[in-house]
């Protein structure tokens, strides 16, 4: 009768069921049934469902807010916010040769001071390692043990902080990777500039310079030679800049007189003047330096060869040899690449199994 009266009064049948079952042991189940009935009958005023707040990621080893730095921000840099290493500027946009020249010429004094002091500190470390009786492998183990000991103490004193201090994908690791990539790109730019081998005269100059340095490396200890190279790189270019007119005048005078006398000689005499000392060095020097002497002779001959004569010799003799080597090496490189990919020798993304 009560139900009939309630229906007659126009009450929602869902509310009636909820009121009757509110104090029974099956109240929870009845509430769920009532919600389903309300959905079925299309109640004009559904109960509002409170929105759950978005979960905030906790500072755990898996999600560390302190390390979620944006290294790919597309916001252009301003003078007050210079671009980060590994940021938006691509490696193709960086002129590493100009960067190195500006650093060695002290154009940016802060940057030059930083690299000069960093080089001296690195030299101190290298000198200490070379003078130490500890082997390289033992020293590496000691460094890892020191890191483990520090992490052990930190985990004991501040476990929550230690759990967040991981190296994988951290800001420091990303910066180190970016700095290493920039250093490798700078070294590659220097290689392409001075060791490309296209300019014959520059090839001869660089080859002779490297050979002289290799001979100095035998006469001087490695640590001493390293210090002299570092100091010379940061002092000689600046000294030449301030005395450029005087040095150029002296060198031009000496070189001009030597060149005038050298031009009077026949090509055969010129070749003899170079080949005879090289032949003596070839006999006196070790086997590796003999190969260097052969290379210097070839570079010298390439410098003094007439363009038309070398072009003819290159087309008839050298290019067929290069084509044969390329034809023989192409299948080999393809086989090596296929093997590396097939057996996953190099770290590559894993394929998802279907």
From TrEMBL:
Membrane-crossing residue ranges in chain numbering: 113-130, 136-153, 165-190, 210-236, 274-301
Occurrences of domain Reticulon (ranges): 100-271
Main location: endoplasmic reticulum
Pro residues: bias regions: 45-56
Highest taxon of source: Eukaryota
UniProt signal peptide: none
Annotated stretches, region: Disordered: 37-56
Pfam family, any one: Reticulon
A single BP term in Gene Ontology: response to bacterium
InterPro entries on file: Reticulon, Reticulon-like
Keywords for the protein's UniProt record, in alphabetical order: Endoplasmic reticulum, Membrane, Transmembrane, Transmembrane helix
Protein name listed in UniProt: Reticulon-like protein
Taxonomic source organism: Chlamydomonas schloesseri
